[in-house]
């Protein structure tokens, strides 16, 4: 994050610092959690808030320790609905699908602060859509932790609250019948975002991601949505190490679907783990290619209020330059 901020401070892009109150029970926090609850379970959000203190009080961890699950849910032949265990130690596995997303003493504050950026960013764009010329038509929210692996019921993939889903809920609080698009260009499939909107015909989800990569069990082309949402889920998997030319071909396919949908609001889940040297990626994408990806996206979806959310990206030395490349490409296509 510091690498991105350093690069942005040396650029001409406007930076707004969002500093929420630290009081957990204030009106700001309550409104944020209420909006998040549109797509996230109440008991799950309560778990995020309290589980560290429960483990600490029970002597399961020291103050500098972290909550990690031991046992996860699994299919049974009983037909009984799954229920959260009463035991706090066991409950960690009920609300998780992997071991990458521990919870420590300051985790909840970071989770809520990250989600707040998505909320505030979407709210700024609501102002733009309503004719407030002082508000931008594009906001880039530096969310950490990321969000697209969270399905509203479980942590995983470093994700605790699905920031894209929260942004959609924020937009819908003012424009409930809008057609919304989500373009997910993180290297990994956004299983959480797909799960949340899988049967929603008002949200078109398009994902370009590494084929047969994490989270392994989702992201196939035949996952097209369900019920009224059938046809509104578009997965475009791409082999690891694919060239920028192959990537752009997939991008064009996804952008065509989004353009045909006539969006009123766009969310971009932007991951820089697509970078050629990323330890958790990658495709053959270099710094200058992010400008091309951004420009092509904005040209195809010109003028639509757009919230860009930071997802993955782990080559710290190149992260700032990659972000600037993307933003410069986006800005050039916006006519700014």
UniProtKB/TrEMBL annotation:
InterPro entries per record: HDACs (IPR000286), His_deacetylse_dom (IPR023801), His_deacetylse_dom_sf (IPR037138), Ureohydrolase_dom_sf (IPR023696)
Keywords: Hydrolase, Metal-binding, Zinc
Domain Histone deacetylase: 37-327
GO biological process per UniProt: epigenetic regulation of gene expression
Cofactor dependency: Zn(2+)
Keyword Hydrolase appears in the UniProt entry: yes
Superkingdom, natural source: Eukaryota
UniProt record similarity statement: Belongs to the histone deacetylase family.
Protein name: Histone deacetylase domain-containing protein
Organism (species): Exophiala bonariae
